[in-house]
Design brief:
alpha+beta; binds zinc ion; 25% helix
Length: 288
């Protein structure tokens, strides 16, 4: 369940000014350098038609920025602010009405961006819009007119997405942080520690042990107490380290694994004090 941000109320989220899309996308941390990539250069960046009419922006490996209408947000009984919808269905409706371009295309891009965000675990940021919203179900309606827009300072998360239908529930507030280590970056390794031949012997590490140690560390180096850095997807990164290495015969158990910041981890392997660090780690883990 997403962490609840300190939100006064849904009404207080209504934007009060109209910022430029380029400034909001930049403020969300996305690279907007390509917006200047047109005949008018820097002067035309904010009105570059390739970008300024879009309703979603995707930076691979980092984040998506979605435009949402404030009027379509709901405040649930538990205080969560959510957006329920179905961009794929919106797109189909527009195409069926002969309005595929531009509205159907935009809705399709929104749907595709949600899928990308889920697949790649990207951060989700939201630009809130207010003004005259075009009713999707009214085939004669005029184009929408955004009168106010602002970037929500809180990140959002995708609470639900139905791959089959495209129905989504977006929730204001970042998902609770997950903890990852150096092995999470490669595909997850299944099963307990086993020895197998692969240009000599290497040891697979039990993901459950790593997971339990990362949970115990709760995002802080268990040696120096510094917080791990946050990845673009919001997960907190530390490295798991076997205090007595598996090749010395010690086993892959939580009381032989410590979560360290990358610097302390390198020192544990290559520092001149590696032997005394090992003794300190044993004491720390025994206490934990
Ligand atoms: Zn440390």
């Amino acid at each position: 369940m997403p962490r609840q941000p300190s939100t006064p109320s849904l009404a207080a989220l209504r934007p009060l000014r109209k910022d430029r899309v380029i400034d909001l996308v930049r403020a969300a941390g996305l690279d907007v350098s390509d917006w200047s990539n047109s005949r008018r250069g820097e002067a035309g960046a904010a009105t570059n038609p390739k970008y300024c009419y879009e309703w979603v922006f995707v930076e691979p490996g980092a984040a998506i920025v979605l435009n949402l209408w404030h009027v379509l947000l709901e405040e649930q009984a538990d205080g969560c602010i959510v957006h329920r919808g179905n961009f794929r269905e919106d797109a189909e409706t527009q195409f069926a009405r002969g309005r595929g371009s531009p509205w159907g295309v935009r809705a399709r891009r929104l749907d595709a961006a949600l899928q990308t965000a889920l697949q790649d675990n990207l951060a989700v940021r939201v630009i809130l819009n207010a003004g005259v919203r075009r009713d999707r179900d009214d085939a004669e309606a005029e184009a929408s007119k955004v009168e106010l827009r602002a970037l929500d300072p809180e990140p959002w998360s995708i609470a639900a997405y139905d791959v089959a239908t495209g129905a989504h529930v977006l929730v204001r507030g970042a998902a609770a942080p997950s903890f990852v280590d150096q092995f999470s970056i490669d595909a997850d390794i299944g099963g307990p520690a086993v020895r197998h031949e692969q240009t000599g012997f290497v040891f697979d590490r039990d993901p459950k042990v790593r997971e339990a140690v990362l949970k115990r560390a709760c995002g802080r180096c268990e040696y120096c107490d510094q917080p791990g850095f946050r990845r673009a997807d919001g997960a907190v990164y530390l490295e798991t380290h076997h205090i007595v290495p598996l090749h010395e015969g010690e086993s892959d158990r939580v009381d032989n694994v410590i979560a360290l910041c990358p610097n302390d981890h390198r020192e544990a392997h290559y520092g001149e004090d590696a032997a005394s660090l090992r003794l300190r780690f044993i004491a720390i883990v025994a206490e934990a």
